[in-house]
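Tutorial, part two.
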Amino acid sequence: VQLVESGGGLVQPGGSLRLSCTTSGFRFNITAMSWARQAPGKELEWVSGINSGGGSTYYLDSVKGRFTISRDNAKNTLYLQLNSLKTEDTAMYYCAANLVARPGGTWEARYWGQGTQVTVS
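Running the prediction step on this input gives:
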């Protein structure tokens, strides 16, 4: 199983990035997917989720209207379009399969990517 994120980088406030998560080794087309992020010194934070078919999407309040999650099941790839970026969006961004919240504020996923760094400065 592999989940490989790409597309991160350094961008000025107000700028945009498009993150990709290319997957293999599991049934992507029947798997709910999510993006989460972790800023230095902070806990992991769920950012956005999408159901297996792509018809339902969910967002953290602070990114609603700025970020858009999507998927291409033919390409086994998950995306996150980041617009109107703010300095507080700076974090390592991870894609995750079947991400669920556990008691105590932790997160558990069936599979994780290695992350891609987004720096807004």
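The first strand starts at residue 2 and ends at 6. In part three we will examine how such features are distributed along the chain.
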